[in-house]
Amino acid sequence: MPGSAADLTFCNWLVRSEIEIVGAPKWDAPINRSPDIHVVFGSVPPPESISESEFQRYNSSEEETFIDYRHIARYHVKRDGVVIVQPYKDSCIDYAGLPIHTAVQPFLHLYKGLGSLHAGVVVVDGRAYAILGNSGRGKTTLIAAMSQRGFKFLAEEHCVMEMGSPDQTIVKPVMPILRLWRDSLSSLGLRWADHAATLQGGSKHYLLAPEWFHNRPAKLDGLILLRDKNAATAPAIPAPLKGPHGLTILSWQRQCRLLPWARDDAQRTINTLVSFMREYRAWQMKVDWPMDDLGQGVESVLSVIERIRLRG
Predict the structure, then answer these.
(1) Which of 66-70, 202-206, 222-226, 291-295 has the weakest average pLDDT?
(2) Which of 95, 177, 217, 297 is deepest in the core (most CB within 10 A)?
(3) What pLDDT does residue 306 have?
(4) What pTM was computed for the model?
(5) What's the mean pLDDT in 82-102?
(6) CA distances from 212 to 4, 121, 177, 216 (A)
(7) pLDDT of residue 115
(8) What is the pLDDT of residue 1?
(9) What is the pLDDT averaged over residues 132-140?
(10) 271-304: string of b/e by CB count within 10 Å (b at 16+)?
(11) Residue 207's beta-bridge partner residues?
């Protein structure tokens, strides 16, 4: 079974994700020999000129990024993978590691020339399928339901890719964490009170699920876009995507304007998505299954995966 709130400490979060912790005598953390990220505790100045989103402020350049995650900590992200963390005095220090997944890692991926999509990723028969959609469409709930049925997931929020043609694009594992609303946890037969609330509070919780996690890279075989069943453009039945809409291209164009140094990598991501559409490996489907029948959703996704395989 997935882990409880007691398992979700800064040490567990980072160590299970193969991230090195340096200068933290409070935790007896094993050190990975070749980690992707080195976390160091130290002093981090606030960003001088900032861009701002709902929960964070940041200033990014080609060599380093400063992130101020409200009420939790400040982070100095360096191109070489070193992350200096300064928790806020009154914050829960165990929570200081959580934004490393949601706020810090995307910048590190860009520094490495990796593509990143707002998508969850499930593995079926050794091949990866990215599930895209706007927030609230049920991506994570669907991935959790598939995991309960024996499939594995690579990511729930950030699909990290080594980009190439549809036969050469590789998805890298991110973290064994799912973030689920309370009604989703109940539909999965899990008690929300057993799982830590997210940093944003409200009714969303962290689910630590290493046994559902696929900890090896996998080839990306297809993209599945979830559409709102009430949307006028939602297809009556699953259909190939024939245009750029829905594949978060607009969000990447927005990122290009905010991060000019990442423009080339953003364009490569767009080109990769377009190549999947040209080869009929990008499909759209509407979310028309009830929350109390997630099995129907799983079967719908598996049927689309079968169509991708037949067309690919």
Answers:
(1) 202-206
(2) 177
(3) 95
(4) 0.82
(5) 75
(6) 14, 12, 9, 12
(7) 81
(8) 55
(9) 83
(10) ebbbbbbebbbbbbbbbebeeeebeebbebbeeb
(11) 178
Distant-in-sequence, close-in-space partners of 35: CB < 8 Å, separation ≥ 6: 18, 19, 20, 81
Q: Distance (Å, rounded) from C-alpha 185 to C-alpha 169? A: 32
Average pLDDT over residues 219-227: 91
Looking at this protein, which amino acid is placed at residue 274? V
| Burial class for 7, CB neighbours closer than 10 Å (0-12, 13-18, 19+) | middle
**Residue 289 to residue 291: CA distance in whole angstroms:** 7
**Residue that has been written with the tokens 């245009």 in this structure:** 243
pLDDT(29) > 70: no
**Residues 287 and 131 sit within 8 Å (Cβ to Cβ):** no
pLDDT tens-digit map of 139-163: 999 999 999 999 999 988 888 888 8
The answer to whether residues 37 and 97 touch, using CB atoms and an 8 Å cutoff, is no
Average pLDDT (30-35) is: 35
Assign 3-class secondary structure to the chain: CCECHHHCCHHHHHHCCCCEEECCCCCCCCCCCCCCCEEEECCCCCCCCCEECCCEEEEECCCEEEEEECCCEEEEEECCCEEEEEECCCCCHHHHHCHHHHHHHHHHHHHCCCEEEEEEEEEECCEEEEEECCCCCCHHHHHHHHHHCCCEEEECCEEEEECCCCCCCEEECCCCEEEEEHHHHHHCCCCHHHCCECCCCCCEEEEECHHHECCCCEEEEEEEEEEECCCCCCCCCCEECCCCCCCCHHHHHHHHHHCHHHHHHHHHHHHHHHHHHHCCCEEEEEECCCCCCHHHHHHHHHHHHHHHHHHC
* Beta carbons of 52 and 60 less than 8 angstroms apart: no
Give the whole-angstrom CA distance, residue 8 versus residue 17: 12
Kindly report the backbone phi and psi dihedral angles of residue 217, in degrees, each rounded to the nearest multiple of 5, phi listed first: -60, 155
What amino acid occupies position 265? Answer: D
Do residues 128 and 277 touch, judged by C-beta distance below 8 A?
no
